[in-house]
Amino acid sequence: MIIKTTIKKVLLAASVLGLNIPLASSQTKEVTIDINLSKTYQTISNFGASDAWSCQFVGNWPDDKRNKIADLLFSRENNTDGSPKGIGLSLWRFNIGAGSTQQGDDSGIKDEWRRAESFLNNDGSYNWQNQAAQVWFLKAAKQRGVKQFLGFNNSPPVQFTINGKSYANGGKVNIAPDKYDAYATFLAKVIKGVEQVSKVKFDYISPINEPQWDWSDGGQEGAPYNNTEIAGVIKAIDKEFIKNKIGSKILVGEAGSINYLFTKGDKSGKGSQISDFFKPGSVNYIGDLPSVAKTISAHSYFSTSPMASSVKARTALADSVAAVNGLNFWQSEYCILGDNAGEIDGNKRDLGINAALYLASVIHTDLAVANASAWQWWTSISAYDYKDGLIYIDKNKTDGNFYTSKMLWVMGNYSRFVNPGAVRVDATVSASAEDKSLLVSAFKNGKNVTVVVINPGTTDVTTVLNANNAQVQFTTSYLTSQTDELKPGKITGGKNVIPARSIVTLTGVIK
């Protein structure tokens, strides 16, 4: 079974990533990767990232710099040497602000980079020139071929919150039921207004973010909810969308950690969201609402380490999602936070391959064990000293330098080549091979086949691709390592070297 094989591979990969789990045997220099194109799993919806919070300033930077940053995130063109110009994200997440920027210091959010502007004025009118720098990135994404867009809220507008702030008091819900309709009307107007100024339509609206957390420290905009309150908000939005003939789908979940989807968790009334929202007969059932996407989303924070626990939780998650007919799972936000059971510390920037290898293992496990049909990064551009950015910048509102990370390019090993509509297929390291440290996933999209191989070990590994009875001709490889960034290479013959501590994407076609 794929799950059992994946568990073995992840556990052994964990050893070379720093966990105290010994390898069963020494590595060999050659392994066979068996690909079964007829054994299929989830269909990929997208790979994405968000504009919070830096795009509100970077979108006003000089043209040459903001365009280069947009190219890195969205472009599907190649440089003259054949290497990708960018990672070709297929979804872009737009932070719909609650208005803490207009409140300034009175917002209670000390760091102005974590405040967010709102389109809504206090007199009830709307200013579509607000959030202009973020709108610039919306346009830039569309110009470079991005076709899916999602608007998300960390908090309802401050005009509708109980305390008049964009963060809560004592972890209590910050919007009263009599304001649900006003919030829904706001979202409907934002969808139409943004489309008017940018020609970009939000395919998805995610109105609630990490409802399990208290959001009472003023560190950023945020709002807690229990499941009953979430269901009430979603019902109001669905009603408004139907009334205004808005086709945007509502994304439900955005749980602060995946465990809240399939366990009760440690927050009363905030867990078991799969059954609560999508099992008919549940008191909070919203799965039959026309505007609700048949998707449950969660964030992979605090669940990726140690690797054995990560696999166990994702296996349970996949089983819970599969129990609801037609339901998909999106991993909708992640960056490297915390100490991760000693595997890697989320503090301090790491532009090199260490953080990238860890990120690659998380993406792999979410795709190959949890059956995630979408995988989305948190803040695409970071001004902070954390492992939270694909691209890093100087904390300067008008101009500055930017720095790419290997995490950007590792994301590209997936996002550039595993396109929407691709279907994950079975891919395992041969049972007869002694080396099981490689993490392998494979995808089929029409006649195109893509294989992503992660080698976290310290030894180069030669792979032989075996597509069983299918005739697949692999033509190009793309290498990300400490010294390379999606470096293209020609594949000749049936063997491919996966360098130590690298991620390689192999592309081919079915003949």
| CATH topology name of the largest domain | TIM Barrel
What would you call the shape?
globular
Mean pLDDT over the full residue set: 94
Structural class: alpha/beta
Q: What's the Cα radius of gyration? A: 22 Å
Helix tally equals 12
The largest pleated sheet is described as:
9 strands, mixed
Q: Percent of residues in helical segments?
A: 25-40%
CATH class type of the largest domain: Alpha Beta
Descriptive overview:
- The protein has 511 residues and is α/β, with parallel strands linked by helices.
- It folds into two domains: 2-43 and 424-510, Golgi alpha-mannosidase II (Immunoglobulin-like, Sandwich); 46-60 and 91-417, Alpha-Beta Barrel (TIM Barrel).
- The chain contains twelve helices and 20 strands.
- The strands form three sheets. A nine-stranded mixed sheet has the order 18-17-20-15-14-13-1-16-19. The protein has an eight-stranded parallel beta barrel with strand order 2-3-4-5-6-7-8-9, surrounded by five helices. The protein has a three-stranded mixed sheet with strand order 10-11-12.
- α1 (2-16) runs antiparallel to α10 and α11 packs parallel to α12 (406-415).
- It is globular and about 70 Å long.
- The protein starts with a helix and ends with a strand.
